[in-house]
Design a protein that fits this description.
Blueprint: H1 7-10, H2 16-28, H3 36-50, H4 58-73
Length: about 90
């Protein structure tokens, strides 16, 4: 045992949710404390690159949308206008 844990326990330090959030941030290329505007801007840029009309796939678009939604849901203190997505946000 190293540091009171078995070696395989050291790899299990992060929850599935935190791993998903890290993947979403990496996919969109935003920092951990990104604002709503930064997340939406990064999402728009990514979707423009992976859109099926530009050689991407619908799976890539769905993954980008899921990453955006997950990161926006994690934002602290959502403002009243953040009740739902609008055509302008997406």
């Amino acid at each position: 045992m190293i540091f009171g844990k078995w070696p395989w326990q050291l790899a299990q330090t992060h929850s599935t949710r935190s791993q998903a959030l890290r993947h979403a941030r990496t996919l969109l290329g935003v920092r951990k404390n990104a604002t709503r505007t930064e997340i939406l801007r990064a999402h728009k840029h990514l979707v423009a690159m992976v859109h099926p009309d530009r050689g991407g796939t619908s799976t890539q678009v769905h993954e980008a949308n899921a990453a955006r939604d997950m990161l926006i849901d994690e934002l602290p203190n959502p403002s009243p206008q953040d009740d739902g997505p609008t055509g302008r946000d997406r």
